[in-house]
Amino acid sequence: MTWAADSILLVGCPSAGKTNYLARVWLEMRSDRGPMRIFRLPRDAAYVQQAANALLQGRYAPRTDRDLAYKPVELSLTPTSSGGESGRDVVLADGSGEYWYQVFDRRLRQPGWEKHLRRPLAILLFYRASAEENVAPLDWISYQKLVGLPPTKGEGQAPPAGSVSAENLPTQVVLVEAAQLLLRAATEHGVRHIRLGVVVTGWDAIPTDGQTTPPLEYLRKEMPLLTQFIEANPSGAEVRTFGVSSTGGDLAADGEFRAKYLEHPTAFGYAVASNRRGGIDQNANVAFPILWAAGGDG
């Protein structure tokens, strides 16, 4: 495996599914079943272990602490086939959805993750399908109610600076702005190798016919602005889209599924990605997006 990133930044609004995904990846990599495993445990990963314990008990992980401005999980990873001879340090930098709202509202480069923008990195944008907290794209009427100004002809009128907070804006706007902020900063620091991925969590919750289409096509329908941004790819980053289901079903609403899940929790969950034939490939290794971000070919 050729390593592409020293840091992987996890970006998402509230209820994007980052915590459950990170917990499931933690369980996957500690199982030694996949192509990558944890070579050395991090000094502080209590919140990830807490989330993992919830999944093992058939519950979704509790919401990330709203005050969690920045939480690095410094993992030392190594290919399972290496026999444990060496490891490579990779930082998974997480933060609450509210934290990314603050980044948007203040347009600030927070000191916690600034250091990660000076070396090869990957950025994973998280969006949970059908999450109640998602803010849909605005039509003209909704725009006028939100901003208090009528949109102009053509591309529309930008709201006055500071007049609208991130939590009221469409989810895709917040994600695009966060990505642009990070990419711009990394480019200014001379970083040339960047991977940008979009991870649609809760893939099992979207309509059945949609689960057989590539994640990019799903995004094209649900998040057109984000799709246009990654297809335009102004930063020249290497881009890929994924769908993931951290548990393979609904632990909260489907009692029958939960009973099956509890028999072997780490056997459930999967990731999907587009293939060269225009379809999708399903991968039982939930950590697949992380592995791609770190440098896998996929």
Write the layout of secondary structure elements.
Layout: E1 7-12, H1 18-30, E2 36-40, H2 46-56, E3 71-79, E4 88-94, H3 97-106, H4 111-114, E5 121-128, H5 140-147, H6 171-188, E6 194-201, H7 215-222, H8 224-232, E7 238-245, H9 255-263, E8 270-274, E9 280-283, H10 288-294
Helix pairs in contact: 1-2, 6-8, 7-8
Describe the structure.
This protein has 298 residues and is an alpha/beta fold. It has a single domain (7-135, 170-294), classed as Rossmann fold (3-Layer(aba) Sandwich), CATH 3.40.50. The chain is built from ten helices and nine strands. The chain has helices at 18-30, 46-56, 97-106, 111-114, 140-147, 171-188, 215-222, 224-232, 255-263, 288-294, and strands at residues 7-12, 36-40, 71-79, 88-94, 121-128, 194-201, 238-245, 270-274, 280-283. A nine-stranded mixed beta sheet has the order 2-3-4-1-5-6-7-8-9, with helices on both faces. Strand 3 and strand 4 form a beta hairpin. The protein starts with 6 loop residues before the first strand and ends with a helix. Mean pLDDT is 79; it is low at 151-159.
Question: What's the short story on this structure?
Answer:
It contains 10 helices and 9 strands.
CATH topology: Rossmann fold
Read across the widest sheet, the strand sequence of neighbours is 2-3-4-1-5-6-7-8-9
Kindly report the name of the CATH homologous superfamily. P-loop containing nucleotide triphosphate hydrolases
Head-to-tail CA distance between termini: 11 Å
Q: Report the radius of gyration as a whole number of Å.
A: 19 Å
Q: Please count the beta strands (DSSP E, at least 2 residues each).
A: 9
Instruction: Name the poorly predicted regions.
Output: 151-159
The SSE order reads EHEHEEHHEHHEHHEHEEH
Q: Level of helix content? A: 25-40%
* Main pleated-sheet profile: 9 strands, mixed
Which structural category fits the helices and strands? alpha/beta
* CATH architecture field: 3-Layer(aba) Sandwich
